[in-house]
Amino acid sequence: MNGSWLVEKFALSRSWHSMVTLETLREDALAGLTNAAIVLPQGVAFAVIAGLPPEYGLFTAMITPVIAAIWGSSMVMVSGPTTAISAVMFASLSQLAPPGTPLYVQFALALTIVAGLFQLLAGIFRLGGLISFISHSVMVGFTAAAALLIGASQIGGALGITVEGGGGVIERIMQVADHWRLVNPVAMSIALATLVTIIVCQRLSKRIPSYLVALFVGSAIGEALAAEEAGVAMFEKLPSIVPAVSVPAVSLSDISALMPAALSVAFVGLLEAISIGRSFAMRRQERYDSNQEIVGQGMSNVVAGFFQAYAGSGSFTRSALNVESGARTPMAAILAAIFLFILLFLVAPLVDRIPKPAVAGIVVYVAWRLISFVEIRHVLRSSRSETLILTLTFLAGVSTELENAIFVGVITSLAVFLHRSARPHLAEISPIVYHGRRLLRGVDYHALEQCPQISVLRLEGPLFFGSVEHVESELRRFESRAPNRSLKILALKGLGKIDLSGVDLLVSEYLRSRKAGGDLHVVIAYKETVLALKRMNVFTVIDKSRVHPSKAEAIGAVMEQVDPDICAGCRIRAFVECAAKPAPSGISRDSTPPVVDALGTHGMSFRD
């Protein structure tokens, strides 16, 4: 990392500026207006999820997308308040202060700044590639747990019941159950009407601003049923629609207490932003720089914390709507923030007429949509290891604090990755013909016959200290199946890493084979691996004539060492080179035996 890289990452003159024309401005303006309409009720709902007054969600929707658009990498992603981050903030901060109180707000702003600084450091040290190593199942399990927590936190508000805040999913449900006699029928009617309106609008057309329509319907029903007189809680007037510049009033000890939550928010935000940004970049065949996106997200959160906005990230819903509305450049996200600011002047006087159960109905729908049942089914059916990651992440989020789910998921993902790395695939292979080409394929999978003297093995994966025990165990297993095959060929296919422990295993196997009267030949396709072995002095023990660039060359060399008497009694004739060896009576020297047709039929030539 050098100074020029930092200047490039923080420079204001991003390359997309030159793409802005009158034509793109018109299309971006239309997309921005559509986004502003959708984020107005969303911003209020997400603020409620985060335990903050509604204006903070709106401020986040105005500040975050502008900064992220300027410094980020995606051409169409729209940042702002998101469900997952709002849920993490609520779960973390509600343990430190009552939601909605001035102290809670100050904690939320300070947490946003600290999370942004964590993200900036990740961008500066170019950790974007590491984020990609975290399994997608972590986010699937985490969002499912967050959805349950969000839904449980809104049940009381939807039923008009005032309950204590805090606790996990089960505790929140029990709190509502203990007060079920206090259900307000008017509040429940408003929440139900709001929820049904969203569902109907979504079924009719995705282009309908369903959240806005549902909020209007809920407010109208509240007016018709005299909700305020019936004891239904209403939102208070917005104290301001213009975010003020301020420094969060917290102490150093408070910041220390916020660190774990800030790390969780930073991590969740980066996972969301990078996955969304990369997804749309691939669809649109655009260049995407994950490290630049991290810088953009970090800058947006650091600035947001000083402008009464809380932590945000990329929003898949708003980004998808942005694309569908014809957005061309990040100006669409910037214009959406400007249009939202203008809309607030029109709707701010009406905020105190919005019943809280109406927003609770919207939040319940958001929570339901947050659970990706399709992805959960796909994970459960396709991979046991990914199922383990998803399950442990989900259970940690439901049974403990939500932010713990992230750490459990990450640790499990890394454990699975290390387990897979420590168990590279080792298989016996033998010739098979496919489309006229003789290839080497798995013996067990294709039920192939093998040469009685030569064992050809293929190793796929790294050979390092973590994997040598497994590889050695597999070598002994194959050896026990055919103890008379004294000549071995070990093909190191795609060997990504080999260390001193791996080298020790190669040397040990070579000496073991030689001592037993056999030999070991190694196939290494890459020059870099050969050079690495040379640096580790492997060729002072292993003869360089035993190292080959292809399996074909290795087979040709080993055939010079076979016992002709055994060949004379062999009816398999596995290799093309067997034609030069003595053949049993009744079999021509150049004949080839029937090999399983897997794929097919047998050919007459060997190609590697």
Describe the structure.
There is one protein chain. The chain has 24 helices and 8 strands. It is of the alpha/beta class and about 600 residues long. Strands 4-3-5-6-7-8 form a 6-stranded mixed β-sheet. Helix 2 packs across helix 14 (about 330-345), helix 9 (about 185-205) packs antiparallel against helix 10 (about 210-225) and helix 11 crosses helix 12. The longest helix has about 35 residues, at about 250-285.
What integer is the average pLDDT?
84
**Beta fraction:** 5-15%
Termini, distance in Å? 42 Å
Oligomerization state: single chain
- Extended strand count: 8
Strand order of the largest sheet: 4-3-5-6-7-8
Task: Enumerate the spans where pLDDT stays under 50 for 5 or more consecutive residues.
Answer: 593-608
Using only C-alpha atoms, the radius of gyration works out to 32 Å
SS element count, helices = 24
Level of helix content? 55-70%
User: Could you give a short account of the major beta sheet?
Assistant: 6 strands, mixed
User: Shape, please?
Assistant: elongated
Structural class: alpha/beta
Task: Write a brief caption for the model.
This protein has 608 residues and is an alpha/beta fold. It has 24 helices and eight strands.
